[in-house]
Specification:
alpha+beta, Deoxyribonuclease I, Chain A, seven-stranded mixed sheet, 7 helices, globular
């Protein structure tokens, strides 16, 4: 069956602040508030009607109250209704920050089950991204890269390994439609990370959210970005941002792919 229009969403769900159980933290939430947020988040995710959803700062097992055994690979698969959920937990980084294992979180890619997963791979301990290849049509494969620039020693600096990994993906997946999206925790004009953004553009990526404005609800700053390669650029449409009340401090990014 052919799917002419495919909807993508990228969204930071602010999981660690919304579920904080540390009474000494200014982000502390009661268990009742945590449970309410989980129900709201789960409901809003179910209403997105998207084919692919890239989430940052999320633990899908926690959201859906599903038990799981944490593994050394930090990679997990979960099936909820018609969705396949691929989850990469930032265990090493959070362990170094003394976060309790039960409070771990990471990145996930949610895909409608009608799209066949061809390959899944994630970053090493230094980087924070996950990448999946899906068959969209007989002659079209999409490579989805979900990126999260996690703070290191209090700074949001790009790891050189991420740029090298991205170059390898571009080289090896050159014929695919490629989309790179997520929470970069940096604006493209920031002096500290401008060189990294320019490296991404030099690889042939096109910045599709250059003029979208702030992606933070409570202040004016663009943390979230969406890049595509030239193969994807001819198919991408209707790029916009959206928000949901009291779910997260980020706007979500959405776009449509016309095949």
């Amino acid at each position: 069956m052919a799917y002419n229009y495919i909807r993508f969403i990228s969204w930071n769900l602010d999981f660690w602040k919304r579920t904080c159980n540390d009474r000494s933290s200014s982000f502390y939430k009661s268990q009742e508030m945590v449970n309410l947020w989980k129900e709201q988040a789960k409901y809003n995710l179910s209403q997105l009607q998207a084919d692919f959803v890239l989430l940052q700062e999320i633990n899908p097992f926690s959201i859906h109250n599903e038990k799981y055994e944490q593994t050394a690979t930090h990679n997990y698969d979960l099936k909820i209704d018609r969705n396949s959920i691929y989850y990469y937990e930032l265990a090493k980084q959070l362990e170094q920050e003394k976060v309790e294992k039960k409070n771990f979180w990471g990145l996930s890619i949610i895909a409608d089950e009608k799209f066949n997963l061809l390959e899944k791979y994630s970053s090493n301990e230094q980087d924070t991204f996950m990448c999946c290849d899906f068959q969209l049509a007989v002659d079209k494969v999409v490579t989805i890269i979900n990126f999260y620039n996690k703070a290191k020693n209090g700074k949001y600096s790009f790891n050189a390994n991420f740029i090298a990994s991205l170059e390898n993906i571009v080289k090896n997946k050159n014929g695919n439609m490629i989309i790179l999206a997520g929470d970069f925790n940096s604006d493209i004009n920031d002096y500290q990370n401008k060189e990294a953004f320019m490296s991404i553009i030099d690889m042939g990526f096109i910045n599709k959210t250059e003029k979208i404005g702030t992606t933070m609800i409570n202040y004016d700053y663009q943390n979230d970005h969406l890049f595509v390669n030239k193969t994807m650029d001819q198919h991408i449409r209707d790029i916009r941002k959206f928000k949901q009340w009291n779910i997260t401090d980020h706007y979500g990014l959405s776009c449509t792919i016309k095949l």
